């Protein structure tokens, strides 16, 4: 069966495949531009753009780190990333991922609109005021990420009351996904919170509010997985980890190598200063953090609100901005390598074109 297109707001995506936004630096211009060029939705991550092209677009750094929120989420770098992605995908729909938990959320959403995003995707929190920041951009579609029907209900209620609109689509993310989870550690293992069980509930809730396409994410690996979720009633899928196994993925070769070499038992749920469990690969850093011997925590980049300027980082034993950016740059010792539960299945690096062909047609 051929895959149907996916319509989100005013934008039509040829294949119902969204490449999940991955920070720091995993999905920037090359990955997102290439996915959009091949007919999926490429999503640029707005996280840590200060690191783009060796920090050439920022005003100030300290100890090799972008100084403060304005430089960590660099507006100039984000514009450059969009400009370069557009050179690859032209006018095809292009998304931007902006986490709700970041400092300067509203400013970064506005930056993304001005930089040329067609679709903005927000997870890590309930974005109850998201439409506030896109008033001047009526064509920009808004897509929250949720982990339950209840979360979608709260968003729809607030948005319809305050802004007279509902989400243009919703992504349901289950507990096999990479990075931060919308669940407690225990819930991640409970059957009732697995993706196939929460997707139908979110579809039911979405129907109560109108025509909201539902996109399933977390642990989707191949063509058969995509078909399984479309048959369950989803309108599309979001895939993160598998796109790391591409030449165009913006992360360092070392990042890709860590995933290719990872075994099933190396992928685990960690504590994070963001306040949710996060899934990543066991590397030397994890051992250091467990022994409370991780690198010093200085909060130079002031990245996320829940961390409270380093308080939570000290609690869990690492700074998330510094460790994720080190992984992007290929530091196998001190980097934090996020991965979905299926990351150990990555065994080759191929082109985005080839990966899209496999996802669309099967092997
Ligand atoms: C390295 C990595 C970084 C990620 N960073 C983000 C992020 O910044 N924002 C976000 O909403 N999701 C992030 N995610 C989640 C992905 O966008 C995607 O939804 C998820 O990984 C889907 O599950 P899968 O990896 O099993 O396909 C990240 C995932 C990975 C693997």
Report what the structure shows:
This protein is of the alpha/beta class and 363 residues long. The protein folds into 2 domains: 6-255 and 347-361, TIM Barrel; 262-329, no CATH class. Helices cover 34% and strands 15% of the residues. The strands form 4 sheets. It has an 8-stranded parallel β-sheet. A 3-stranded antiparallel β-sheet has the order 11-15-14, with no helix packed on it. Strands 1-2 form a two-stranded antiparallel sheet. The longest helix is centred in the N-terminal third of the chain and has 15 residues, at 75-89. The protein is globular. The model has no long low-confidence stretch (mean pLDDT 96). The structure holds flavin mononucleotide.
Number of strands: 15
- Our count of domains comes out at 2
Task: Kindly report how far apart the N and C termini lie.
Answer: 14 Å
Number of helices: 13
Structural class: alpha/beta
Poorly predicted tracts of residues: none
CATH hierarchy: architecture of the largest domain: Alpha-Beta Barrel
Main-sheet strand order equals 3-13-12-10-9-8-7-4
At the third CATH level, what is the topology name of the largest domain?
TIM Barrel
CATH class of the largest domain: Alpha Beta
Give the ordered list of helices and strands.
EEEHEHEEHHEHEEHEEHEHEHEEHHHH
Which hetero compounds are present in the coordinates? flavin mononucleotide
| Share of helical residues | 25-40%
CATH superfamily of the largest domain: Aldolase class I
Give the averaged pLDDT, no decimals.
96
Range of strand content: 5-15%
C-alpha-based Rg, rounded: 19 Å
Silhouette: globular
